[in-house]
Design brief:
This protein is α/β, with parallel strands linked by helices. It folds into two domains: about 240 residues, Metallo-beta-lactamase, Chain A (4-Layer Sandwich); about 140 residues, 3-Layer(aba) Sandwich (Rossmann fold), CATH 3.40.50. The chain contains 13 helices and 24 strands. It has a seven-stranded mixed β-sheet with strand order 1-2-7-8-9-10-11. Strands 17, 18, 19, 22, 23 and 24 form a six-stranded parallel β-sheet that branches. The protein has a five-stranded mixed β-sheet with strand order 12-13-14-15-16, with no helix packed on it. A hairpin with a 5-residue loop joins β7 and β8. The radius of gyration is 24 Å and the shape is elongated. The structure holds MU-OXO-diiron (FEO). MU-OXO-diiron binds next to α2.
């Protein structure tokens, strides 16, 4: 339970949740961390709290540096309960602390918890609070990703506490990007981005350009999940690519199947795409984690989605997946709807409708009665090749 000094007198004092496998239906196959940071200055400052059942773990780390009852400020960058549910127990210990947060965070905190007696000071983007030799500057992050969100910049250390932004869901002993491996850290961040931030691409682009044009110097980014970025340029560059939906020559084929007919079509489409040299990913909706599927879709150029028709409509697992995908609002893709049917092909029509709602540029949907013939499989192959081209 050791704290980790990430800059002079700035410590990581968070908690590691090795066993959690679910983050509102996002598979966290390697667990996750709740990062909290302690700044030792004239005013002792805690940046973010941890999930409620991990307060003890975080306090053990804080105690190795200072008595937690001496904390003067608790900055709440974001009130989602993976961070804020530890606030009530933290405030019982840090009795004299003042909470610094946005107005919306204050409203939310007092809705989630009994905030009576808590000293809550509202700050807004651009405000500064001196904590001794150092200065906290607050950055408005409204809707990135909740209305209350903000980030905190420690001016003298050029250190950005970005909360969820630039975070990753991975539990590890490593605290820094380089220790985990830069490429691996980026790949975990991509999974997080795709499943949590993809729908906010427009706001992310705007915020990145605002930060870049403000001339804010950032030497280190300390998010509220996962490893800390000693190479902030690398992850900001990756965010910019994802927010612009930059895509490689990749085709993602996603399907579910009742009697293997839609599966055969999916494989033929994948073969066709591969024959044109595309990178191909094939996913079975009931077998593969949706978190992985949407991560591959994020930077794919084309997506084919297949469903059999059941009860005159979509196969329920496909309907669920499409609901998830629609909410994530992927952009700039080509699309293909396909599937087999018995007496009507409504499932394919419903997929087509959703692809159009997402503004995908679509090919003519492929509907096959019962089992695909050789000719129909050839047609699927050609559609895959066309998607790849
Ligand atoms: Fe890590 Fe939006 O909570």
């Amino acid at each position: 339970m050791k704290p980790v000094e990430i800059k002079d007198n700035v410590f990581w004092v968070g908690a590691i949740d090795w066993n959690e496998r679910d983050f509102h239906n996002f598979l966290t196959r390697r667990g996750l961390t709740y990062n909290s940071y302690l700044i030792m200055d004239e005013k002792i400052t805690l940046i973010d709290t941890v999930k409620h059942k991990f307060v003890k773990e975080s306090m053990e780390r804080i105690k190795k540096v200072v008595d937690p009852s001496e904390i003067d400020y608790v900055v709440v960058n974001h009130i989602e309960p993976d961070h804020s549910s530890g606030l009530p127990d933290t405030m019982k210990i840090a009795k004299n602390a003042t909470i610094l947060c946005s107005q919306r965070a204050k409203d939310g905190i007092c809705k989630y918890y009994d905030c009576e007696g808590w000293d809550i000071r509202v700050v807004k983007g651009g405000d500064e609070v001196k904590i001794g030799k150092r200065t906290l500057t607050f950055i408005d992050m409204t809707m990135l990703h909740w209305p209350d969100s903000m980030a905190t910049y420690l001016k003298e250390d050029k250190l950005l506490f970005s909360n969820d932004a630039f975070g990753q869901h991975i539990a590890s002993e490593e605290r820094f990007d380089e220790e985990l491996g830069l490429e691996e850290a980026i790949s975990w961040t991509k999974l997080y981005y795709a499943n949590i931030l993809m729908p906010l691409a427009g706001l992310i682009k705007k915020k990145l350009s605002e930060i870049q044009s403000s001339g804010l110097e950032i030497e280190m980014i300390a998010p509220s999940h996962g490893v800390i970025w000693k190479n902030p340029g690398r992850i900001v560059e990756a965010y910019s690519k994802w927010a612009n939906f930059e895509s490689g020559n990749k085709v993602v084929v996603v399907f579910d199947t009742m009697w293997h007919s839609t599966e055969k079509l999916a494989e033929a489409i994948a073969d066709g795409a591969g024959s044109e040299g595309a990178e191909v990913r094939l996913f079975h909706i009931r077998k593969d984690p949706w978190a992985d599927i949407v991560t591959e879709i994020l930077d794919a150029k084309a997506v084919a989605i297949g469903s059999p028709t059941i009860h005159n409509g979509l196969f329920p697992p496909v309907a669920g997946f499409l609901t998830y995908l629609k909410g994530l609002k992927p952009q700039n893709k080509k699309g293909l709807a396909f599937g087999s049917y018995g007496w009507n092909g409504n499932a394919v029509k419903e997929i087509q409708k959703i692809l159009e709602e997402l503004k995908f540029e679509t090919l003519e949907p492929l509907m096959v009665k019962f089992r695909p013939t050789e000719e129909e499989l050839q047609k699927a192959f050609e559609l895959g090749a066309e998607l790849a081209r």
